[in-house]
Every structure is written in C-alpha cells, then in structure tokens.
Design brief:
The strands form 4 sheets. A 7-stranded mixed sheet has the order 6-5-4-7-10-8-11, with helices on both faces. Strands 1-2-3 form a 3-stranded antiparallel sheet, with no helix packed on it. It has a two-stranded parallel ribbon with strand order 9-12. The protein is of the alpha/beta class. The longest helix has 18 residues. Helices cover about 35% and strands about 25% of the residues. The two termini are about 30 Å apart. It has one domain: Spore Coat Polysaccharide Biosynthesis Protein SpsA, Chain A, CATH 3.90.550.10.
Length: about 325
C-alpha cells in the first residue's frame, strides 16, 4: 500500500476504510478516507495510473499541460495521479504547479536536487509513482494525453512496457519535424538498432508506459541521466525479457523543443557507447544479481506472543 503525498492536519479525522473491488481484474484495494471541508477524500489510495511529467523551466507550457492532462483524466474517468518532476527550474514552474495543487488533490510536485537531466527526472518520478501502470509524457504534450489509452490497452493486453512511436504510422503525425530533424532522428535510430540491437522504429518518443512492477526494476538499473536514457531503459527491458510493445501514436512537432541534434546527439552517441560498455563489462548482470541477492537481509527473531485464556496459555 502506498500512501498519498498528503499531509494530515489536525482539522481532518479518519472516518472509515473503503474496500473497492474491480470485477474485471478480480483485484481489490483498501483506502482510508478523511473528512474536511471538501468532503471525503482518499489519503491512502492506490491509483491504477500514474502520469509523470518531467519539467525544467516550463513556466510557459506547464499550465497548459496541467489543464490538458487533468481534463483528460476527468473526461476519461481514469483513476490517476499526476506527478510533475521539477528538474531544478529557475523560473516559476514549481510555483505554478503548487498553485494548481490547491484544487487538485491528486497532483503532486517532486523536486530534484538541482538540474540532473530528463533521465533522472523520469526515473525519480516513476520510482515514486503509486499506480499499477506508470507512464511519462513530455510537458509539450506532443502526443495528446488521450493517446495514453493506446499504451494502457497494450499493457492490459500483456505488455510489460508500451512505447509510443511516431514512425510506425506516419499518417498520425499532425505537425511534421523539419527535414534536418527527421534526418538526424532517423540516423540516430539506425545507430541504436545497429549498435544496441533494439528492433524499434522509434526509441526517443517521450511517451512510454510500464507495469509498475517492471518500472521498479528497470529504472533502478538505469545509469544514464540525460537525453540518452531511452535506449538504455529499452535495452534493460529486453535484457530482462520483458514484453516491450511499440504502439503508433498521434504526434505533432513542437518547434520550442530544446533538444539540439548536434550537441545532444553527440552526447547521446557517447551514452550509447557507455551502455554498450556496461553490457560488455557485465555491470548490468552484476546489478541484476545484487537486486536478487537477499543473503545480506536479516530478519530479527520475533518473540512468541503469549495469550492467556483463563488458566490456559496459547502460543
């Protein structure tokens, strides 16, 4: 059970536990509720979906993103929480999110210790997310939030990881990238397919979803913290034999993108060499083995509880 990021104040009091049963999935969850001026509110809910939005100096776009994402959650009837991960912004990004949090109890702000990069932000958010399905989307919402239904459907159909793709069905591109961006993007994808053995048409689309159980393993093994993290998490997922499904999504280019294909592209090539080096040196295997090794975990002995019933002792 994962507690919600909600501070319990003295003017709120618990009323009753609520059991919710999902007949379709044959699962149940318990949430506690408290009562305040807004009525009954969950404080220990376990949402079906967590949406993570990494953000760095996004004051110009974050309000529109929150409006669209939260509206979509309401319209679709999703049982969802939204986490914005502030990557050390120097503008009003955090303040804007905090203002929206006053009216949206399932909107949360996660703050990185300084500017660490998109890969770090995604990892920080997904590892803190409580949903059965966890996903991330870019703040520019190049893929409309409604397209998450496609990723969720793939997860429910058996995939452990569902990745949005701009290139599986080009007719779904509403605003095309400039030709030079398309050229560099396709070159980078060819390199990832050749060097890392990834069979996907699009590794870089910022629209991916995971079963929570898979995300908790994959992102603990992640080492790349900036733009080159996407190929690494897909490489790790395949190494762990998770089912990864590529899903065509609607997508429109945002010309305000901060990524430089020359500067960041060179860095991403360096990251791929680092990933390959980690693999050749067996570092992922060692990390996976360490996660499975419980030999150093010691559970202290528990004293037997003695219950006296009349003159009979029961142990």
């Amino acid at each position: 059970m994962h507690t919600k990021r909600e501070k319990i104040t003295p003017n709120r009091h618990f009323t009753r536990p609520i059991l919710q049963y999902d007949k379709r999935r044959h699962t149940a969850r318990v949430s506690l509720q408290f009562e305040d001026r807004r009525g009954f509110c969950d404080v220990m809910a376990h949402p079906q979906l967590s949406i993570v939005i990494p953000a760095f100096n996004e004051s110009a776009r974050i309000e529109h993103a929150l409006d669209r994402v939260l509206s979509c959650v309401a319209e679709q009837g999703w049982d969802a929480e939204v986490l914005v991960v502030d990557d050390g912004s120097t503008d009003d990004t955090a303040a804007i999110v905090q203002r929206w949090m006053r009216d949206h109890s399932r909107l949360h702000l996660v703050k990185n210790p300084g500017n660490r990069g998109k890969g770090y932000s995604v990892r920080n958010g997904l590892l803190q997310a409580a949903g059965e399905i966890v996903m991330f989307t870019d703040a520019d919402l190049s893929s409309p939030m409604e397209e998450a239904e496609r990723l969720i459907a793939a997860i429910n159909d058996g995939a452990d990881v569902a990745i949005g793709s701009r290139w599986m069905d080009r007719t779904r591109q509403t605003i095309h990238q400039p030709l030079y961006r398309q050229f560099f993007g396709r070159c980078f994808n060819w390199v990832t397919r050749t060097v890392m053995g990834l069979p996907f048409k699009d590794t870089q689309c910022g629209f991916k979803a995971f079963k929570r159980s898979a995300a908790q393993v994959i992102f603990r093994l992640q080492t790349i913290e900036r733009w080159g993290f996407d190929p690494e998490i897909l490489f790790i997922a395949r190494k762990l034999q998770y089912v990864v499904r590529e899903v065509p999504v609607t997508w429109g280019h945002d010309e305000r993108s901060r990524m430089s294909y020359l500067r960041d592209g060179i860095k991403m090539l360096e990251d791929m060499a680092r990933i390959r080096g980690n693999f050749m040196a067996g570092r992922y295997d060692k990390a996976i083995a360490a996660m499975k090794d419980t030999s150093t975990m010691v559970t202290p002995q528990v004293e037997p509880v003695v219950v006296k019933v009349s003159s009979v002792e029961v142990r």
